[in-house]
Design brief:
The protein has 301 residues and is α+β, with helices and mostly antiparallel strands. Helix content is 44%, strand content 18%. The protein is globular and about 55 Å long.
Length: 301
């Protein structure tokens, strides 16, 4: 493994903001060379040196071959193979064969997760760590490519406004299919096996968040509920999920806010009060920081 001085950390802000990369800034990046209109080529800048990625990423090899090193292991992708890279991994692209066709997605950790099914998310993370590369069967391959193309079309449509919402839905489909493919390939079903202490604490945290997020966004509040220190809880949550505890709390707050803002007869002040913000101005600042819209802008979409 290279020394720490040789490692370059890459986040979503490092991707060029040009026509080759379709983006929801800070959340999602798409790129491919699957048709003549695609601008990216196999020669485009890929990490020929080790980099540490702060996002999740996936490649699907349609034609050709890709050799990639993830942490200490080297993997070969042929036609129909996919690789999933988890945040914090060391990645080095060893070779992309000339003429290779592929799709690529990079996703921020808080934008793609199994919030609604914690155990499923934990299982998915375990499977990816064990075997990041897998061969898609014909049906899974066709659905993945169809889903990718549909997502790409939505993100490039100027008339389509709810890009984040639809992207999360499509990414969830891709994630579920990937987990199912892993399970089919290994011949294993999701086992009802005992979870460890870290996973148990994380699940308890998520249970408390779902119960109290509209009342309290403080990590200290939840740490006290679970009889641990805020620092310890933050560490465990990040170790298990890849997300910061405050990010998960805020995700629920934003989901509730979006739902309420779209509810007929509900004012912005009502939403601010229901979610226990000090005042409407503070709520507006919080909402814009996490969505890119003011509450009024979102309400009027």
């Amino acid at each position: 493994m290279p020394s720490i001085h040789d490692i370059i950390k890459v986040d979503l802000s490092h991707f060029p903001t040009d026509e080759r990369f379709i983006q929801i800034p800070g959340k999602l990046v798409l790129a491919d060379n699957i048709d003549e209109s695609s601008k990216i080529t196999y020669k485009d800048n890929h990490p020929i040196y080790p980099v540490s990625v702060t996002f999740a990423a996936t490649f699907l090899c349609l034609e050709g071959a890709i050799d990639i090193k993830i942490d200490l292991n080297t993997y070969h992708l042929s036609s129909g193979s996919s690789v999933i890279i988890i945040p914090g991994s060391f990645v080095q692209m060893l070779n992309i064969a000339q003429g290779t066709k592929m799709t690529f997605m990079a996703i921020s950790p808080d934008f793609m997760n199994f919030v609604g099914d914690v155990q499923l998310g934990i299982e998915f993370g375990k499977k990816v760590k064990q075997c990041p590369v897998h061969k898609l069967d014909e049906d899974c391959y066709d659905e993945y490519l169809h889903t990718y193309k549909t997502l790409k079309r939505k993100l490039t449509c100027k008339e389509y406004h709810l890009k984040e919402e639809v992207a999360k839905s499509y990414l969830h489909i891709i994630q579920c299919n990937a987990l199912n493919s892993f399970l089919n390939e290994t011949g294993k079903a999701i086992e009802n096996k005992p979870i460890n202490r870290k996973e148990e604490l994380f699940m308890q945290f998520m249970k408390e968040v779902k119960k109290y997020y509209s009342e309290n966004r403080s990590i200290t509040f939840y740490a006290e509920k679970l009889f641990v220190s805020p620092k310890y809880l933050s560490t465990i949550v990040h170790d298990v999920s890849g997300n910061h505890a405050t990010e998960l709390i805020n995700q629920y707050v934003i989901l509730e806010a979006k739902t309420m803002l779209k509810t007929k007869g509900t004012s912005i002040k009502d939403v601010s009060n229901k979610l226990n913000f000090a005042n409407q101005s503070f709520f507006a600042k919080f909402f814009k920081q996490h969505t890119g819209y003011t509450p009024k802008e979102y309400k009027d979409i």
